[in-house]
Amino acid sequence: MTSYAAAGVDIEAGERAVELMKEKVARATRPEVVTEASGFAGLFDASALLRYRRPLLASSTDGVGTKVMIAQALGKHDTIGIDLVGMVVDDLVVCGAEPLFMTDYVACGKVVPERVAEIVGGVAEGCRLAGCALVGGETAEHPGAMDPDEYDLAGAATGVVEADRLLGPHRVREGDVVLGLASSGVHSNGYSLVRHVVRTAELSLSAELPELSRTLGEELLEPTRIYSLDCLELARTVDVHAYAHITGGGIANNLSRSLPDHLNAVLDRSSWTPPPIFEVLAGHGKVPQAEMDNTFNLGVGFCAVVAPDAVDTALAALAARNLPTWVMGEIVPGEGVASYR
């Protein structure tokens, strides 16, 4: 007899996954979330925006890319959702926006309730770390389009910033200082190159390389650091002019997006030492420096452009939040690009 289950879609498994994730999702909330939702849409009390004089809504969407293939290969699915949140909410924080709420989308070849619950549980944990609510999402089973053990995830978030507190190129001034905020590792960008290096160098994810303190797979699966609460607090504490989220394209390319067209950022490569994982990738993959620069964050997950007299306070504030930060460059006359001296 023909049925939806015979076609490869297990509705009961989907319902079981929802039950398993409920407790974790419930921790990713804010007071503005309306719990009496219809079950089809998440509700957020917009009267919270009344405290703003001119609220600007910010939105962002992203995925995790092929890092999910590392999670699948290792059979560890509870942190990849943190990566998703980091990729989405920290784009909002670049303009100074506070993340308010997020939704996620998980597509898989076969719904395994425990696995889906782990994935979404990671999303919920990421939202908790970011201070935003996970108000809803969707899990879709795609038999035939994806193998049973394959999945992908994406998400979208909304934030708010006061119009006169908007950060960006319009605030950047000559003489400003560029701070580097440490990444937790590779984060979630460049994994197509990562996997190419692993494959061509015949490395095993279980390999214990001398440069690393854990297996290669564990290092590559380290979750993306989420900067939203740190950066929001820093903007409340000192005169921050702009932020840059260092994602695909590397440090210089992403920082250039936060510069006006008459100023440059000059970065001092000697001001920090990239984590060992980047040495591993460059060495085993014979990846030239220019390619490393244009692909990876090299240990810098975020940049902050601050006024010169705010540097000491900014460094102390982020150190107090256990976020390693250092002076890595300055703003000079130019044509809107970042480069290394």
Automatic annotation (TrEMBL):
SUPFAM superfamilies: PurM C-terminal domain-like (SSF56042), PurM N-terminal domain-like (SSF55326). GO terms for cellular component: cytosol. Pathway: Purine metabolism; IMP biosynthesis via de novo pathway; 5-amino-1-(5-phospho-D-ribosyl)imidazole from N(2)-formyl-N(1)-(5-phospho-D-ribosyl)glycinamide: step 2/2. InterPro entries: PurM-like_C_dom (IPR010918), PurM-like_C_sf (IPR036676), PurM-like_N (IPR016188), PurM-like_N_sf (IPR036921), PurM_cligase (IPR004733). Residues 48-161 form the PurM-like N-terminal domain. Gene3D superfamilies: PurM-like C-terminal domain, PurM-like, N-terminal domain. Pfam families: AIRS, AIRS_C. It is found in: Cytoplasm. GO terms for biological process: 'de novo' IMP biosynthetic process; adenine biosynthetic process. CDD domains: PurM. It catalyses: 2-formamido-N(1)-(5-O-phospho-beta-D-ribosyl)acetamidine + ATP = 5-amino-1-(5-phospho-beta-D-ribosyl)imidazole + ADP + phosphate + H(+). Residues 173-337 form the PurM-like C-terminal domain. It comes from the Bacteria. One of its GO terms (molecular function) is ATP binding. Its main location: cytoplasm. Keywords: ATP-binding, Cytoplasm, Ligase, Nucleotide-binding, Purine biosynthesis. Its EC number is 6.3.3.1. NCBIfam families: purM. Belongs to the AIR synthase family. HAMAP family: AIRS. This is Phosphoribosylformylglycinamidine cyclo-ligase. The lineage of its organism: Bacteria, Bacillati, Actinomycetota, Actinomycetes, Streptosporangiales. The gene is purM.
